[in-house]
Amino acid sequence: MIGKIIVLIIISLFIGGVFAEISGKNETEIAKQYLIEGKNIDALDLYDQLLLKRPNNSELWNNRGVALLRMGNCTSALQSFIKALELENQSVPIRTNIADAYSCSGEIDKAILYTNEALVIDPDNVILLKKVAEYQREMGDFDAAVQAYRNILSLNASDIDAINSIGELSYLNSNFTQAIQAYLQLVNLSPDDDMIWYNLGVNYEADNQFAKAVDAYNQSIKINASNYKAWSNMGMIYYSHNHYNESLYALDKVVQIRPDYSDAWFIRAIDQKYLGDINGSVLSFENASALAPNDTVKKAYYQKYAELSSINSPFEGDSHMTPLPLWIIMVSCICASFMICRRLKK
Fold it and tell me: Which residues are listed as membrane-spanning (predicted)?
């Protein structure tokens, strides 16, 4: 009888242990499911309970940190990730999470440090290389970011995102030659992308290669005739080179596509003025001023030429014509020059 009791006790303990192990596994899976479903508070509560039983489990600490990071608790998340890394020192994902936590708290230099540590373990990890590039860009170190993207291209020469980023960063760094090279690569890879042609045109324009800029804008328009940015930039180039008919044609397209574009109406009005279309110029100045009511230059131009139109006076050589104030002329020239410059798409 005593022997049977002992056997039953052993069996009971064994079964209890098995059930406890199964229960623990089920709780871990439930916690993971909470994370997947975005139930971060529920996941955190369950991970805290699990860690009381298994304090040396790196996965539990790491996942706890993920829940905290998603909740915006950067400091506590970082503490959990560091504890996880102490338990699993060669983990690339944990180092990446530590980098994300430092980035969350604004310590980008430390985020770069831990991402580079992860790259030592996994040097061909494109995701990590892109993270380094993004962190360098965030810090304003465009040259370092470009180099990180070049490292990606050494693994995949046709990575469009990396090439595009090199083009963008080179433009922001005023390295137009390098940017042009990047966008020339892109038009070979994606010749039907109108924005790539547009960005190539922007860089040619910034590099004072105006004929090539116009060609690139024309290619963009052939692909997408509604690309008002390409029409606008082309119109500005023609305007700046005194080709008023060509400029007017391009800006007519702009205001058809974007009738709320004040700058296009304004330069269009100047084109019309030089071409002798008094009434058309007044209407364009009126639209430009109405769309930018706080712009004193546009308002002054409209008022002046509306007055001239009302007395039916030509623009040139009229005895009734009072010259515009010098400050208005100077500011309008500056504005017109500034409008020629265009930034790359975000």
Answer: 324-341
